[in-house]
Amino acid sequence: MCPIAGCSEPELTTRRGYTTGRGTVVVDGFRHRVAPTPAHAPESISHITAKLLIAGWLRGTGWDVSVERTDVRVLRRPDVHAVKGAAKLAIEVQYSSLPYSQWHQRTTDLESSGYTVIWLWGVLAPLSSVELTAIHQGQLSAGQRLWWIDAAGRRLGVG
């Protein structure tokens, strides 16, 4: 079942991974049996698992949690939205590549709505072999920590 709240066609099926004609590798995952309205992008099993692991952990520590809930003020939908008292968290799980400008805009928009934004960078390789991107370098330059998630191994790492 699709984990996105309010999905008009929540029934999913599996999809075998493939390589596109341009060499992009698409990993095994899920797809909707019928396209939902409005459409939303497919997600890998690692991305879905990571979101649900984080949501479950936060619920267990007393946070009110939603997965894929749109903040109507900034029209952004963080992967995991959590509220505890006056504190608001927006947790983004990112397994795919992301342009710096999109990362910056998403972060800025969510912060303008009062969220503390936490990015969890998904890894499919050993944590010791992860290459840092411009986004990671920007986070480190701003004094932020890098958080890594390995959903299959149920592990978090801090850089």
Lay out the secondary structure.
Elements: E1 12-15, E2 18-19, E3 25-26, E4 29-32, H1 45-60, E5 64-67, E6 80-84, E7 87-94, H2 100-112, E8 116-122, H3 134-141, E9 147-150, E10 155-158
Parallel strand pairs: 7-8, 8-9
Antiparallel strand pairs: 1-4, 2-3, 5-6, 6-7, 9-10
Task: Characterize the structure shown.
The protein is of the alpha+beta class. It has two domains: 1-42, no CATH class; 43-158, 3-Layer(aba) Sandwich (Trna Endonuclease, Chain: A, domain 1), CATH 3.40.1350.10. It contains three helices and ten strands. Strand 8 (116-122), helix 3 (134-141) and strand 9 (147-150) form a beta-alpha-beta unit. The radius of gyration is 16 Å and the shape is globular. It starts with 11 loop residues before the first strand and ends with a strand. The mean pLDDT is 84.
The SSE order reads: EEEEHEEEHEHEE
CATH topology call of the largest domain:
Trna Endonuclease, Chain: A, domain 1
Instruction: Give the fraction of residues assigned to helices.
Output: 10-25%
CATH class assignment of the largest domain:
Alpha Beta
Spatial strand sequence of the major β-sheet = 5-6-7-8-9-10
Q: Helix tally?
A: 3
Name the CATH architecture of the largest domain.
3-Layer(aba) Sandwich
- Report the mean per-residue pLDDT as an integer: 84
Rg for CA atoms: 16 Å
Largest sheet: 6 strands, mixed
Oligomer state of the chains in this structure: single chain
- Please give the number of β-strands: 10
Structural class: alpha+beta
Unreliably modeled segments? none
How far is it from the N-terminal to the C-terminal residue, by CA?
33 Å
Whole-number tally of structural domains = 2
Q: Strand-residue fraction? A: 25-35%
C-alpha geometry: globular
